[in-house]
Amino acid sequence: MRVVCAVILVFEAVVIGLFIPVAISLEGMPPTTAASLWGGMAAVALVLSGLQKRRWAHYAAWALQAAFLFTSFLVSGAMLIAVVFVSLWVTGVILGRRTDEMKAAHAARAEAEAAASGSGEGGGSVATATSRQTR
Q: Which residues of the chain have pLDDT under 70?
């Protein structure tokens, strides 16, 4: 899940950064305001993408999604882009959790099979070593 979320945050940082020239040229926003608002959000998104292994960074990224959604009201047409990225974020979290659960179940099943075959005659260790070599 964390890898998917990190990738979404990197792409989101690019899009947030592109809001700066749009806000300046189309909305007439002062450059310092636009650069500090969306430039800061883009920088935070990049930092959080690298820190997704930490639990607090994942929750901070949720807060970033909310801030991205709320600030998109300031630029016309940005709401659609914000909704798309927030939807990608939610979908990535849901599917990532399912994938993590399936990986954990698969690892537990493989460990149980290895323990069951290891308690037998010893032939299971040869089959396991052979299957590792073919991968």
A: 119-135
